[in-house]
Amino acid sequence: MTFEQLMDYAIENECSDVHITVGTNLAVRRYGVLHILDERPTAEESIAMIYTILSPKEIERVEAGEDLDVGVMIDNEVRIRANIYHQRNNLACSIRLLMAQIPDFDELGLPGVIKTLADAPNGLVLVTGPTGSGKTTTMAAVVDYINKTAPKHVITIEDPIEYIYAHNQAMIHQRELYRDTPSFADALHSSLREDPDIILVGEMRDFETISAAITAAETGHLVLSTLHTQSAAQTVDRIIDASPVELQSAIRSQFAGCVRGVISQQLLPTMDGNGRCLAYEIMVGTNAVKNLINEEKTNMIPGTIQSGHKEGMNTLNECLVGLYREGKISKKTAVNASYDVSELDKLLGNTSTSYF
């Protein structure tokens, strides 16, 4: 099997990820489930597959022992994000397939309040969730919506560049980590001198990036970014806990002042096993939410979200219950996805959580 044939197979079977490992079978992830294929290329064939997506300089870096992240367009229609790494003295490659066309909010199953957040003139909007939860695609949908509707200057800082945007109503400049800039934080500081309206930061990995993102949001820009957290309340705690102890009070106040919204999401297997659907929690930065953050009462955020339907908010459990009652997901899937099973149980009207 050639690299092109492997990609054709993955696209035809709606796989999200492909794994090439020297010395063993090929593997794909379909609807969240890993499948080991019968195909077992030779070591030379596996290396040739991996090198297909690398430039000569990138091959030199890999052969020198470096791990590498790359974004590549294949067949001029599908873009992939790949991580090349070493294991057991051999080479391996994990490939994420990105959608050929950026889906809109309706296609993704996102609520209308996302447009309100995307239209905000300034502040911080975060998309959070575990690896493989569709954060990149949601962020791309937000940028694409802005691109189609607003004459804005958008700067993205990514590792690597994933979706490509052509100028439409907006002008979009995309910067790739280690190619166009040495770090997220450096690019953020620099972007403030580049006349942006909107700044997308691929991931808030450290305090320096978090601090720079909050500063950019405070100075009149709309900042979009991601975190690996499972709920809105956990996102607030992660932002604060990532800060030095002596600065946590100031960061808490700054974050409360600039947060516009948090979208926490997961991709869950559908009941029929032939796809995945989006489950999400939406927190909007209302005065009530900002007060809870300032007063260090993040444990009360879920209750405020539950009572904030008028502002477009909903808890993850409310979304899970809706998906279950619509027959889209099983009860077991809902329980596995919930971060508060007892609350989910109450919403379902059950007296037992023995769903297995």
CATH fold annotation of the largest domain: Rossmann fold
How is the main sheet built? 7 strands, mixed
Q: Class by helix and strand content?
A: alpha/beta
Question: What ranges have pLDDT less than 50 throughout 5 or more consecutive residues?
Answer: 351-356
The proportion of residues in beta strands is 15-25%
SSE string, helices as H and strands as E: HEEEHHEEEHHEHEEHEHEHHEEHHHHH
Total strands: the figure is 13
- The CATH superfamily of the largest domain is identified as P-loop containing nucleotide triphosphate hydrolases
The residue-averaged pLDDT reads: 94
Number of spatially distinct domains: 2
Briefly characterize the structure.
The chain is an alpha/beta fold and 356 residues long.
Entry keywords:
about 350 residues; alpha/beta; Beta-Lactamase; Rossmann fold; seven-stranded mixed beta sheet; six-stranded antiparallel beta sheet; 13 strands; globular; disordered C terminus
Could you outline the blueprint of secondary structure elements for this entry?
Blueprint: H1 3-12, E1 15-21, E2 27-30, E3 33-36, H2 43-51, H3 56-63, E4 68-74, E5 78-87, E6 90-97, H4 105-108, H5 113-118, E7 123-128, H6 135-149, E8 153-158, E9 171-176, H7 184-191, E10 198-201, H8 207-218, E11 222-227, H9 232-241, H10 248-258, E12 259-269, E13 276-284, H11 287-294, H12 301-306, H13 316-325, H14 331-337, H15 341-348
Parallel strand pairs: 7-11, 7-12, 8-9, 8-10, 10-11
Antiparallel strand pairs: 1-2, 1-6, 2-3, 4-5, 5-6, 12-13
Helix pairs in contact: 7-8, 8-10, 9-10, 10-11, 13-15
